Amino acid sequence: MKHSITYSVKQKRWDLLLYGVLALLIITLFIVMYVFIYYSINHSLLHPPYLFLFVLFVLMLVAGIYSTIKFLVITTNEIVSSKHELALKDVIIEHSNEIIILLDNIGKILSINPALTTILNFDKEELIQQPFRAVLYEKSFEDSVRLRDLLLSRFKDVFKGYEAEIVLPCKVQHYAEIKSIAFKLVPIFKDEQLQYILAIGRIIQSDYLTSNYLKSEFAEFILDNNIRIVNMLSYRLTRNLETYIEKKEIIRIQLGLQEAIINAIEHGNLEIDFKTKSLLKKKNGNYWDHVIDRCNKEYLEKRKIKVQYYLSPDHVKYIITDEGKGFEWEHYITTLPDGNLINNYHGVGLTMLQDIFNVSFNEKGNEITMIKYFNKG
User: Which of 9, 30, 115, 294 has CA atoms 20 to 30 A from the CA of 229?
Assistant: First the structure.
């Protein structure tokens, strides 16, 4: 959804024109008065041409004064109304239960509301002029290139004038607690230029019934090749795990799911190999936009991703299936002889997944099964 707050350039031009006309009338007033007095003394004012010009000037002056008074009254009312509106908004923001962060046009924090300090225990002074990531759980970004890329892609969407949503882990300052917060990023424009970004966040709360009574669960999702929903889906697939494992491990599972699902989209359905990905990343613009462009190819766009989720008392299992050609997973499932996985994208991704889950593939290599046992760290 594209969103902007702008001031009418056309209205500004009318205002300048009005002031210009008034200035011209004031300047010519003295000249007209001189001419009027001079010709009155010489009894020449009653000549039709002079009388017409004088009447015309008086009418223009009256119209100008009327327009000015009307403009000033309207402007004053708008200013008073705006002040009341801003005061009301300040009250709402100050007392809102949602986190509200005002960012500048490059993503630095300009202001925060009390809800953020209450929820995440930050002092306002330590956040002002800091980048947005200052409120986030830094360890998750150190561990995941994917999450950094996703956050960057969301901000690129905002820079283009579109609202964006993303769920991010945030650490409660001075405590070990981590909260999952869903952020909506809203661009604010003035004169067609991005001025501010409004980040509105709400905590994803645990479900009481789930926490106390859920014993098992199954869900199946069928997805298009939509990179932008992967982040939200990873939180949906892990929202009921807090009863079984700690939050830090849940975040690792979320990162692993994002890695596996994006791999299925990129390397499976869209057939983007490591070389092609490197070339796309070197192109101007957002890498994800180039990936989405590939989704428009007729033989690729209809392909789907299937994600199955099984929650049991002692483990959680995820099965992710793409409609691609598969790959020779045996070559990558263990560390390569030279230990150099950096030059092979599958190797890097699978190493991370193996560190989180018990991983297995089907014979074709287009389906991955990932199991996390709760009694194994």
Answer: 115
319: pLDDT confidence band, cut at 50, 70 and 90?
Answer: very high
Assigned architecture for domain 208-373: 2-Layer Sandwich (3.30)
CA separation for the pair 167, 236 (Å, rounded): 10
Answer yes or no: are the C-beta atoms of 366 and 268 closer than 8 Å: yes
> Tokens at residue 135, please?
């409120």
Q: How far is CA 15 from the centre of its chain?
A: 35
Extract the tokens encoding 245: 């494992």
Confidence of residue 5 (pLDDT cuts 50, 70, 90): very low
Please state the φ and ψ torsions of residue 321, each to the nearest 5 degrees. -125, 130
* Torsion angles phi and psi, residue 176, rounded to 5: -85, -5
Place of tokens 């009256």: 62
C-alpha distance across the termini of the chain, in Å: 42
Separation CA 88–CA 99 (nearest Å): 17
Helix (H, G, I), strand (E, B) or coil at 86: helix
Q: Hey, what are 179's tokens? A: 């909260």
Q: How far apart are CA 147 and CA 311, in angstroms?
A: 24
Q: How far is CA 81 from CA 84, 195, 199, in A?
A: 5, 23, 25
Distance of CA 342 to the CA centre of its chain: 30
CATH of domain 97-203: 3.30.450.20
Angle at 177 between CA 173 and CA 181, to 5 degrees: 85
Q: Which residues pair with 56 in a beta bridge?
A: none
Q: What is the mean pLDDT of residues 124-148?
A: 82
Angle between helical axes of 9-41 and 48-95 (0-180°, round to 10)? 150
CA angle 147/151/157 to nearest 5° reads 145
- Specify the pLDDT at position 295: 67
H runs (alpha helix) in the chain: 9-41, 48-95, 114-120, 124-127, 138-143, 145-159, 208-213, 230-236, 247-263, 274-282, 287-295, 298-301, 345-356
